[in-house]
Structures are given as structure tokens and as C-alpha cells.
């Protein structure tokens, strides 16, 4: 029997678009919430956000604690494997391959409340939702990810909506426009941007640039299109070992790198992108004509967290960087993009965090102290061409944590196959199912415990 659900979900969604009052339809779901007593709702563990991190933890604790004890609050009916959007933007995968129904990634043994948290009250172990629920909990996992803030760039939303050559691999609404732009650009500037502040998968904007350059070259357009990467950062990549190779690659492929430039305005009618010069003392800007513009937007945790005591002044959830336990509320953990961890925000990082939070939350539930430590493991498969990839793997303080006993900073065919063929099933069958804790054990085995120097 098909059920139609009408939800009040205000604010901005994952897509960076205001969701307003959303009416969503979907199949009847065996484990949808059916509670009608809004005053009495209580769950032992509440997971806010059913993305990569939330789904992984739900799959660890749902079967263990039972359907009524674990509640996932997640407004969206579709779960995306976001790392695939790099390949979708380059025409190497289809968009539909990145999507699954949320109900299929969550375990049967959990309650899915298809709603959005409006406010958090951790002093009373409570939260409220836009749908009017009050929820109390014994333990809380905050895994809300990041919101895409395209509207912080003047004219950007209008440009994304109206100019077929303004695109963004970060959003399911705009990722298909990237390959459209590549197929149809004839000449002029193809500009790829990197914003100020924290972003998820900091390598994604430059991967889009390398794959675009590769496509343009292989399709005979490269001599008429100037490719440039305008980044707010002072370096091409934060880890020197990989930056050294990347600098050589952009030089040899004639990709212009313009550093300390932050996109502040898009005028799609004039085809002008305006960048503030971050090192200028008097707020100077620079205008660039574009034929194609790929935007990586500024990002922040969702605004529902901003006024809560769960976050610090940066608006990220404050956790101990080793145990992932909240620094003020011991019954609260956070993992994924919204946690204030000083490492790159990726799905790969979540794989290692899943093992740590699972172990530590079980300890806390049993009345003990958390003991498992996260080393900041993260990974960024930097697609250099459609057939080659630098597999960057590192941890806190830039420690190199490469898995294989080869130099992974060199572009390799094998790593591109890993990214294209091996990682999607690893995500759907391993990571979101809570079965993949990252490659740590393989690293120890392959490298016999020997560390790679930076
Ligand atoms: C283009 C691109 C390329 C990438 N490439 C890679 C890569 O190659 N390798 C890699 O490892 N990672 C990559 N990533 C990063 C990776 O996808 C993310 O780091 C990861 O998916 C984040 O998971 P999360 O659970 O923290 O957040 P998400 O998966 O974004 O989930 C957060 C969930 O919280 C929900 N939510 C938000 N607010 C609320 C609320 N108030 N109440 C309830 N629910 C809420 C949202 O609806 C969402 O479903 C890439 C990302 C992009 C966009």
C-alpha cells in the first residue's frame, strides 16, 4: 500500500535550496514512525541526520538495541552517494547511480522519523522538530552534515538556475549541468572555484577541474578554452606530499592556478564572475569573464545547530577529536562533516569514525569511559584524468596513512579503478551498512607497520 506523507520541513536542505513546506510521497515503510503521542516520544538513541554517518551508526545500533530504541530523524527520502558526483560531472557515471532510497540504507530495526530537527536542548536531553514532535533521548548522535550556502555568493543561485554553463558537482540539482557545460563549451574561460572556510571533500573542486581539462583535451577543444582554478586557499592542496605532484600536473597541463581568490558575485547576464582578493588590504576584487563556471559553495552545519550549546563559535559540533564524544555532554557524540574535527571531511573519514563511535558509545552505555581513539584518518581520491588517480590518505597533523606499499602520491590507473569500480559497492554494502571501518587493518598488513614519511 502506498502512503503519502506531508511534512513541514522548513529551512535549507542538503541541496542548498530552501525546502519550505515540502510535500513528499513515498512507499509504505515498515519502520516509519507511527507515534501519535507527541508528548511522550522517547528513544534510547536518537540519530539526527541519516546521511553517510547517521546510516552507518543506525546499522550498528538498530539491530543491537531494537526498532523502538533507535530513532533516525532524517527529512529526505533519497540517500546520495555524493563522492560519485565527481564522476557524474565528468560524464563517467549516471546521476541515478548515486541515489538510493533512504529506507533501503537504514536497518529494518530502527524507527525512521521523516522530519527535521528544529532545536536542540541537550541540557534536558530533548529536541523538537518542524513536524511538531518533542523527542527525548538517553544518547544522541549528531550527524547533520553540511548545508550548501550558494546564497552567500551574490547572484549565484540565479546563475545556477538560469545559466546552463554555471554548474556545481556539490548539489544533486546542478551536478548534471557540469557535463552539459563540458560538452557544449566552445571557447573562453572555464573557471573552477574553491571557497573560504571548511568544505566537504576539499579535493572535489580540483577533481572537477582536472577531469574537465582532460575531457576538453581529448575532445579537441583545449586550445580554445583556458582552464583556471581560482581558490581561496594559499596552496593547491593542504598536504605537501600531494601538493608537490599536483603543482607539476597543473604546470604540465597549462591549468592556471589563481590563489587567494574568493568568489563573491556572479552576473550571469554579463557572464562575469567577481572574486575578492583575500590578500588585498583594501578589499579589491577582480572580474573574470567565464564561458563555464563550476562553483564550490561555502558550507556550514545546518542553522538549527547554530544557537544550540552543542556547537562552538565556528558552528561545528564540539567533540573530543580522539573519542568523538561531546566535550560538554558525555551522552552526545558527533561524527561526519558537522563535527569540529581537524581533518578533511570525507566519507572515508566516516568509515574510521564509525568504528570509534560504535566502540565508545557502547562503553558509555555500559557506564564506562570511551577508550577507542580516532587518528583523523581521511582519504581523497584525486582523479587527475579519467584513467588516473592520486589516492591521498592522511590523518591528524598531515600524517600520511597510505594503505598500499606503493607511492600513492603518483597518479595511477589502479587507484582510478578503485574510485570508479570498487568504492561505490564498498559504500552501499559496507560503509552505510556499518560494516566498513576503513582500511586501517589492511594498511598494517600491507606495510608491515612501517609508516610513510611526509
Ligand atoms: C562532489 C563531492 C565529492 C566527494 N568526494 C568524496 C570522495 O571522493 N571520497 C570521500 O570519502 N568523500 C567524498 N565526499 C564527501 C562525502 O560525501 C561526505 O563527507 C559525506 O557524505 C558526509 O556524510 P555526513 O553523514 O556527515 O553528511 P550527509 O551525508 O550530507 O548527511 C547529513 C544528513 O543530515 C540531514 N539533516 C541535516 N539537517 C538536519 C536536521 N536539522 N534534522 C534532521 N536531519 C538533518 C540531511 O538531510 C542529510 O541527509 C564528496 C562530497 C561531494 C559533494
UniProtKB/TrEMBL annotation:
It catalyses: ubiquinone-10 + hydrogen sulfide + glutathione + H(+) = S-sulfanylglutathione + ubiquinol-10; ubiquinone-10 + hydrogen sulfide + sulfite + 2 H(+) = ubiquinol-10 + thiosulfate; a quinone + hydrogen sulfide + glutathione + H(+) = S-sulfanylglutathione + a quinol. Residues 44-348 form the FAD/NAD(P)-binding domain. Keywords: FAD, Flavoprotein, Mitochondrion, Oxidoreductase, Quinone, Transit peptide. It is found in: Mitochondrion. The keyword Secreted does not apply. It comes from the Eukaryota. Pfam families: Pyr_redox_2. One of its GO terms (molecular function) is quinone binding. Its cofactor is FAD. The keyword Mitochondrion applies. Belongs to the SQRD family. One of its GO terms (cellular component) is mitochondrion. Its main location: mitochondrion. PANTHER family: SULFIDE:QUINONE OXIDOREDUCTASE (PTHR10632), SULFIDE:QUINONE OXIDOREDUCTASE, MITOCHONDRIAL (PTHR10632:SF2). One of its GO terms (biological process) is sulfide oxidation, using sulfide:quinone oxidoreductase. Its EC number is 1.8.5.8. Catalyzes the oxidation of hydrogen sulfide with the help of a quinone, such as ubiquinone-10, giving rise to thiosulfate and ultimately to sulfane (molecular sulfur) atoms. Requires an additional electron acceptor; can use sulfite, sulfide or cyanide (in vitro). It is believed the in vivo electron acceptor is glutathione. It is an enzyme of class 1 (oxidoreductase). This is Sulfide:quinone oxidoreductase, mitochondrial. The lineage of its organism: Eukaryota, Metazoa, Spiralia, Lophotrochozoa, Annelida. SUPFAM superfamilies: FAD/NAD(P)-binding domain (SSF51905).
